[in-house]
Design a protein that fits this description.
Number of strands: 10
CATH superfamily: Cyclic phosphodiesterase
Shape: globular
Strand order of the largest sheet: 3-1-9-10
Oligomer: single chain
Structural class: alpha+beta
CATH topology: Cyclic Phosphodiesterase, Chain: A
């Protein structure tokens, strides 16, 4: 199982992102656009996971007690080297706390956290092929980096299983974990 932990987006945020991406897409843009149903905020990527570590992760994640998490997207941008167009996520104290609790919980099951700083985002598109720098430059010229998004409060986080395919990834929920009062 290829697993990761994330926060799902509220419908009003998905609608706002769909409005932006619909205005930017074209069939010849050299980008692979992410499907709206795949949009989420990753808290931790676990990777390939054997059944015993999956069971451990489920048990440890159920033990997390965290307040609900205010979430707001904070503009759009690019990871040039990776060829990614994204919507940034403001790192509230509650979001940082939840991410640290997730890392601590999964470490008990042998999962190693990434060494890169936590930079939550929603991947909207990836540049394809050898001309990805050119595709991103064309896209940059057409966007408004100050896009505004509705603020939401996350009431749960999820354990997802990823299924990779030629047309992009598909995700299925393997666990739901409430935030707030327990």
């Amino acid at each position: 199982m290829r697993l990761f932990i994330g926060i799902p987006l509220a419908p009003e945020v998905i609608d706002a992102l769909q409005d932006i991406t619909a205005s930017l897409r074209s069939t010849s843009d050299g980008l692979r656009w992410s499907a709206a149903e795949s949009w989420h905020i990753t808290l931790q990527f676990l990777g390939e996971t054997p059944p015993e570590r999956y069971d451990c992760a489920l048990a440890r994640l159920r033990e997390i007690r965290s307040p609900q998490v205010p979430v707001w997207l904070d503009g759009i941008g690019f990871f040039d080297r990776a060829g990614v167009f994204f919507a940034g996520v403001n790192v509230s104290p509650e979001l940082r706390l939840l991410q640290k609790q997730v890392i601590t919980a999964t470490a008990q099951c042998g999962f190693i956290p990434e060494e890169r700083p936590f930079h939550p985002h929603v991947t909207l598109a990836r540049a394809k092929g050898d001309n990805r720098g050119q595709a991103l430059r064309r896209l940059k010229a057409r966007i408004d980096p100050k896009a505004a998004f509705p603020r939401i409060v996350a009431t749960e986080f999820l354990l997802y299983e990823a299924f990779l395919g030629a047309g992009g990834s598909r995700y299925e929920v393997r666990g739901r974990f409430p935030l707030g009062e327990h």
